[in-house]
Write a structure and sequence with these properties.
Helices cover about 50% and strands about 10% of the residues. It binds 2-acetamido-2-deoxy-beta-D-glucopyranose (NAG) (4 copies). Belongs to the UDP-glycosyltransferase family.
Length: about 525
C-alpha cells in the first residue's frame, strides 16, 4: 500500500519535472509569421509546459499554462509597417521591401529587448528554453545566453541562405531553386540566375543584415557580460522550418533542421464565428475566400482593380468572404462578406469553400493545399511569385498578375477554377500526399522541442561544417594547398632534373673536350 502511494508520488514528481518553462518570442508586425509559432506554443501548453509568449498578437482567450506578453509599439513602428504593406502591394521595388522589412524587424526587436516587460523577465525569471520566431533576428539569441538555456529557431517560410548557414546545412544552388524562383525548371540559364541570386543573398546577409543584427545584439547583450553574437549563432540547437518535401521538393537536411510544414493547420478545424458559419453553411452554390494576407492587405489594391474585382464578384452565384482591413467597402455586392481578420485555416476547411483568391503568401498556400482548395494566385512581392509558379506547376492553381486583371481575365480564371474538376482533383491528391507522414507536423514539432529539452540542448546534433568559413566549407583552402604542393613538387623536380641534366651535359662536354 505504502509502496503503491510512493509509486504514485514518484510518477507525479516525474510528470511534474518533465514540464519546462519555455519563452517563445517573435516581435514583428507580420502576423502571418507569428501564427506558426503561436500554434507551437499552444501545443506545448497543452502538453503542460509553462509558456510565455512575446509578440504583438496576444490571444483573446485565456489558455491554460500560457501567458501572453504584448510588445508595445510606437506610432512610428505602425507607420513603418504600413509602408511595408504598401511597398509589397506596389510590386515595383523588391530591394526596398527587404530593406524596410528588415529595418522594422531591427527597430521593433531592439525596442522589445529593452522594454520594461522584457527587462522584468530577464531580471526576475528563469527559462529552460528559448524559441525564436526567426526573421532577420539572430540578435534575440542573447536571451538564450541570459537564461543559460538552449535555443530553437522556427521559420514560418521556406529555407534560405541565412537559415541554412546558422546550422551549416548545404545550399546547393546547382539543384535547389532560391525561394523566389521556386517552381522554375533549373535549365542552364536558370542555374546561372540561381547561383547569382544565392550569391546576392550571401552578400547582403554578410555585409548588410548581419552587421545590423550584431549591433543590436552588442547593445542589448554587451560583450563584457555575454557570450559573443557568433558564439550564440553556433549554439542554436535546432531549426524548425515550415516546409515539407511534398511541397518544397526533396533536399539534403541535417538532423537538426526539421521540416514541420503545415504546423499552423489544425488537424481538426476550430468552430467558426457565428456570422461566418451561417454565411458559409447557407452558401448553396459554394463560396470563395479572398485574402491578400496580413502584410500586403486588400485595401492597398489599386482602386480601378478593386472596382473590377467587386463587379466580377457581384455577378457570381457563389458567395465571397473577403479580408478587407476597413469598416466600409464602397460598392460591396450583396453576396460579399467583409472582415478585417479571418480565421483563414478554419474557413478553408469548410466544405462549401470552392476556391481561394490569394496573393500566395507562404502560409496561405500551405493552408489551401492541406484543405484541398484550389487557388487563383495574384502574387505581389517577396516569395509569392515563386509560390504561385510552384502550385501552377503542381496543377492546382492559375496565376493572374495584378496588371492583367480585367473583368474578362478574372471571370475566366474563376470559371476555370470553379468548373474544371482537374484543380480540385489534383489538390485533393496533393493534400493526401502532404499528410502521409510518420507523425503529423504538430507532433513532429513538439517531439523535437522536447528532444532538445530532454538532452540539454542536444549538442550532439551540431554539425562541424557549421563552424567552417566560406573557404574551408568549399575546400578552397585545401585545393589551393594541394595545388601549391604540386607546384612546389614540380619546381623541385625541375630543379633536380636541371641539376642532373647540367651535370650530365657538363660530363659529356668534358668527354667531348677530352676526345
Ligand atoms: C508559469 O511560470 C510563471 C512565471 O514564473 C508562474 O508565475 C506560474 O505560476 C507558472 N505556471 C504554472 C502553471 O506553473
Ligand atoms: C523584477 O525586476 C524589476 C527590474 O527589472 C524590478 O523593478 C521588480 O521589482 C522585480 N519584480 C519582482 C516581483 O521581483
Ligand atoms: C537600440 O536602441 C537603443 C535605445 O533606444 C539605441 O540607443 C541603440 O542605438 C539601438 N541600437 C541599434 C543598433 O539600433
Ligand atoms: C551551447 O553552449 C553551451 C555552453 O558552452 C554548451 O554546453 C552547449 O552544449 C552548446 N549547445 C550546442 C547545441 O552547441
Amino acid at each position: 500500500m505504502c509502496l503503491k502511494f510512493f509509486g504514485i508520488f514518484l510518477i507525479s514528481v516525474i510528470v511534474a519535472c518533465e514540464c519546462s518553462k519555455i519563452l517563445l518570442i517573435h516581435p514583428t508586425f507580420s502576423r502571418s509569421h507569428v501564427i506558426p509559432l503561436q500554434a507551437l506554443a499552444k501545443l506545448l501548453a497543452l502538453k503542460g509546459h509553462n509558456i510565455t509568449f512575446v509578440s504583438l498578437y496576444p490571444f483573446d482567450k485565456k489558455i491554460d499554462n500560457y501567458r501572453d506578453i504584448k510588445v508595445e509599439t510606437s506610432k512610428e513602428d505602425k507607420e513603418l509597417f504600413d509602408e511595408i504593406g504598401k511597398t509589397m502591394s506596389d510590386r515595383k521595388s523588391p530591394f526596398k521591401l527587404v530593406s524596410i522589412a528588415s529595418k522594422a524587424t531591427y527597430k521593433i526587436g531592439n525596442e522589445t529587448l529593452h522594454s520594461e516587460r522584457i527587462r522584468q523577465l530577464m531580471d526576475n525569471e528563469t527559462f529552460d528554453l528559448v524559441v525564436i520566431g526567426y526573421f532577420f533576428n539572430e540578435f534575440l539569441l542573447g536571451l538564450a545566453d541570459h537564461f543559460k538555456c538552449p535555443s530553437i529557431l522556427l521559420f514560418s517560410g521556406s529555407f534560405y541562405y541565412t537559415l541554412n548557414k546558422i546550422i551549416g546545412n548545404p545550399l546547393l544552388p546547382e539543384a535547389i531553386p532560391h525561394p523566389i524562383i521556386n517552381g522554375k525548371e533549373l535549365t542552364f540559364l536558370m542555374r546561372v540566375f540561381n547561383l547569382l541570386l544565392n550569391a546576392a543573398d550571401i552578400f547582403f546577409t554578410n555585409f548588410y543584415f548581419s552587421p545590423q543584427s550584431r549591433d543590436i545584439y552588442n547593445y542589448n547583450f554587451p560583450p563584457d557580460r555575454y557570450r559573443s553574437y557568433d558564439e550564440m549563432i553556433r549554439n542554436v540547437s535546432l531549426v524548425l522550418v515550415n516546409t515539407h518535401f511534398t511541397s518544397s521538393g526533396p533536399r539534403p537536411l541535417l538532423p537538426n533542421l526539421v521540416e514541420v510544414g503545415g504546423l499552423q493547420v489544425k488537424p481538426n478545424p476550430a468552430p467558426l464565428p457565428e456570422d461566418l458559419k451561417t454565411f458559409l453553411d447557407d452558401a448553396k452554390d459554394g463560396a470563395i475566400l479572398f485574402s491578400f494576407g496580413s502584410n500586403a492587405k486588400s485595401i492597398y489594391i489599386p482602386e480601378d482593380k478593386q472596382k473590377i474585382i467587386l463587379k466580377v464578384f457581384s455577378k457570381l452565384k457563389q458567395r465571397v468572404i473577403m479580408k478587407w482591413e476597413s469598416d466600409v467597402l464602397p460598392g460591396k455586392p450583396k453576396n460579399v462578406l467583409i472582415s478585417k481578420w479571418l480565421p483563414q485555416d478554419d474557413i478553408l476547411a469548410h466544405p462549401n469553400i470552392k476556391a481561394f483568391i490569394s496573393h500566395c503568401g507562404y502560409g496561405g498556400v500551405i493552408e489551401a493545399k492541406s484543405n484541398g482548395v484550389p487557388i487563383i494566385g495574384i502574387p505581389l512581392g517577396a516569395d509569392q511569385k515563386g509560390n504561385a509558379d510552384k502550385i501552377v506547376e503542381e496543377g492546382w492553381a492559375v496565376r493572374l498578375d495584378m496588371t492583367d486583371i480585367t473583368e474578362e481575365s478574372l471571370t475566366n480564371a474563376l470559371k476555370e477554377i470553379l468548373s474544371n474538376p482537374k484543380y480540385r482533383d489534383i489538390v485533393g491528391k496533393q493534400a493526401i500526399l502532404a499528410k502521409d507522414r510518420p507523425m503529423n507536423a504538430q507532433d513532429t514539432a513538439v517531439y523535437w522541442v522536447e528532444y532538445v529539452l530532454r538532452h540539454n540542448g542536444a549538442p550532439h546534433l551540431h554539425y562541424p561544417g557549421a563552424d567552417l568559413n566560406f573557404f574551408q566549407a568549399n575546400s578552397i583552402d585545401v585545393i589551393l594547398f594541394i595545388f601549391a604542393v604540386i607546384y612546389a613538387a614540380f619546381k623541385v623536380i625541375k630543379l633536380i632534373c636541371g641539376f642532373i641534366f647540367c651535370r650530365s651535359k657538363k660530363g659529356s662536354n668534358e668527354k667531348l673536350k677530352r676526345n
